[in-house]
């Protein structure tokens, strides 16, 4: 297959390019900078220069591709997540319009945190509450992706775990917790820390994207979840041990001061199942667990 990937130079995207190339696919990756282009080329992909802010440049990369994986999203400023979500929606609409009626594949990225607080493990049928919070920011892109299946696109979406871990993870939630532990002198969790985060290794996540673009049916949600829920208290303990600082509970009233922008995620409870994803796509996670990566020193250098 010929596959076009946005976010191809990123933490997951570069792994996906390597996985796709190893499986015999021809890959073109969107890159907005010389550094990004070098990463795509090193992973074995061809480069298409463009920027998410320029929809024409993004769409021009589709060409005669058999499928598109949309991984790119601006995480630079979480205070702008709603504006970033609107920009993402515009990209999905532009890609969907380009692919409309072709039967070609489009796999779009979402997140399991969009279905947090459902009271029981969310599965692939659990819809996003787009009325507020993160769901309002990214939910519309998810809804549009599913709707594109009725417009002749083999569209589906991958919900990533909040913790996609592995070598090279420098901007996610766990490296943020590591930096906070160094700055504060303690590794914290909120209250009892019994809330859970799902997790997946970056290589397992990349393989799931490949399976979805190769053979996933239209209108599906796929859960890139290897661990249904890791207690945040255990994550904090592993971080504290790795950094060499004590682990302590943070009063909920002090969470915003202690955790900053990540405070809302520090308190989220997000148990998620990937049973159907594994059954339908034959996806079997094989990478290290989140706690194994922390204890192995993956985050020592962040």
UniProtKB/TrEMBL annotation:
Q: Which residues form the NAD-dependent epimerase/dehydratase domain?
A: 3-218
Pfam (any one): Epimerase
Origin superkingdom: Bacteria
This chain belongs to the protein called: SDR family oxidoreductase
The protein's organism comes out as: Nocardioides marinquilinus
């Amino acid at each position: 297959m010929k596959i076009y990937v946005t976010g191809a130079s990123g933490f997951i995207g570069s792994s996906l390019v390597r996985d796709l190339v190893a499986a015999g696919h021809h890959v073109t990756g969107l890159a907005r900078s010389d550094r990004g282009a070098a990463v795509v080329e090193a992973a074995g992909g061809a480069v298409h220069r463009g920027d998410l802010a320029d929809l024409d440049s993004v769409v021009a990369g589709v060409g005669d591709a058999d499928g598109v994986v949309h991984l790119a999203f601006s995480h630079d400023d979480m205070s702008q997540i709603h504006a970033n979500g609107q920009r993402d929606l515009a990209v999905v609409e532009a890609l969907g319009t380009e692919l409309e009626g072709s039967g070609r594949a489009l796999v779009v990225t979402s997140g399991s945190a969009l279905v947090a607080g459902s009271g029981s493990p969310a599965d692939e049928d659990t819809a996003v509450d787009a009325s507020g919070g993160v769901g309002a920011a990214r939910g519309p892109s998810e809804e549009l992706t599913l709707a594109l299946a009725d417009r002749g696109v083999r569209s589906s979406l991958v919900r990533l775990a909040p913790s996609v871990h592995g070598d090279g993870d420098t901007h996610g939630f766990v490296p943020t917790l590591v930096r906070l532990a160094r700055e504060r002198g303690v590794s914290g969790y909120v209250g009892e820390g019994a809330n859970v985060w799902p997790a997946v290794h970056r290589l397992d996540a990349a393989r799931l994207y490949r399976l979805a673009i190769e053979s996933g049916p239209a209108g599906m949600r796929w859960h890139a979840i290897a661990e249904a829920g890791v207690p945040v208290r255990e994550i904090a303990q592993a971080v504290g041990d790795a950094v060499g600082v004590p682990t302590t509970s943070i009063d909920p009233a002090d969470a915003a001061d202690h955790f900053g922008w990540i405070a809302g995620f520090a308190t989220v409870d997000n148990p998620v199942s990937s049973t159907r994803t594994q059954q339908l796509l034959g996806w079997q996670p094989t990478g290290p667990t989140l706690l194994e990566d922390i204890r192995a020193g993956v985050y020592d250098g962040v």
